[in-house]
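Folds vary. Our protein:
___
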Amino acid sequence: MKNLALIWLLCFAHAFQAQDSNARYQLDWKSNLSYNSSGIDRHLTDAFFYGGHIDSLITAKSLSQLHSRNFWGMNLESSLRLTLPNQYLIQGGIYNYTGINFSKDAFGLTFLGNASYMADTALLSGTKFQSTSFSKLGIGRVIDSLGSTICFNLVALHADSYGTIYGGSIYQDPLIDSISLDVNAHVRTSKMSLFTGVGFAIDLDYRFVSADEERQLPFQIVLQNIGVAKSFQPMQSYQVDSSLLYTGFSLQQFSAQGPTALLTSLLDSLGIHSKHTSGWVLLPGMMQFSKTIDPKMPQRLQAYYGAKMYLRSTYIPCIYAGLDTRMANGFHLGIGASYGGFGGLRLQAYSQLQFKQWSLGLHTDNALMHNGASLYAHLKCGF
């Protein structure tokens, strides 16, 4: 890792050399906050983010929308890029990916309690949680006349957590005096700090046009945050594989053994094994292929479409398509639809305003705010 950092610093210094004073700088700022679910009502999520009361109506509405397999997730990004006159560029950003797969019964147990499953079995199989937070600082270069770029980044890992229930069920006795638990699960987590680990990632933005000479259509392939990170310390890992009939502890047991001994006995009964594992983390890289729009084309209407995915099993590959309209010179509006990601069918909308040396774009993947919300902002200026 020390050799990697040295190479990166040498390249960083080279980026400032041999600048052309007649050329321009360009500054790009991107920000994105989006969260969505395949069934959980948006007001329930908002209560966690902004505070508020979660009443039974919101919980019941969410439960009625759920299927056997459900998704909830959030993406957070804020990044800044400076393109130098010699076509080198410097960039930095902070990112978070959080995704959850869960069964309908897992949601019911969490928000309604086990009493609602009295004399019934709650199925937990397939429940999965993935969350990674990191920041990066990198250098790169514009590699062709269409604006394609490649960047190499140093990554600072802030936190990483992973958990999955391979197979699991809970049965509540009708007398509510015992619980039967059958579970096979694995949890791994790192410490959360500003600098938990270090890694490396590559960004590629490759742009090209179709080979059709009559009408050349613009396309784009984006690879973002493709890389790995290594935690400075081994991660804590827990493995659970057991069947248990739990009836609780008596007052005599609590008095005689004490809470520490009882907790140790419970963990042993549950078959929970703890150990330290390797701290390597695969970053939540994003891959996207899209047909974009060309603002220089004479047509007022242009179609756009594409697909994207993250290197996470809690994310469904997302497809989208829409129509862009040039309302006036330098002003575009677009509307479309997307499906996948963390939710179902959603309405897209965006606006793009360009004036001389700067442009501002606003975009949402969920214009109707169905089970979530999203807002993308992109500000670009030359000087």
Notes: Residues 60 and 112 are 9 Å apart (CA to CA). The chain has five helices and 19 strands. The longest strand covers residues 149-172. The first helix runs from residue 2 to 14.
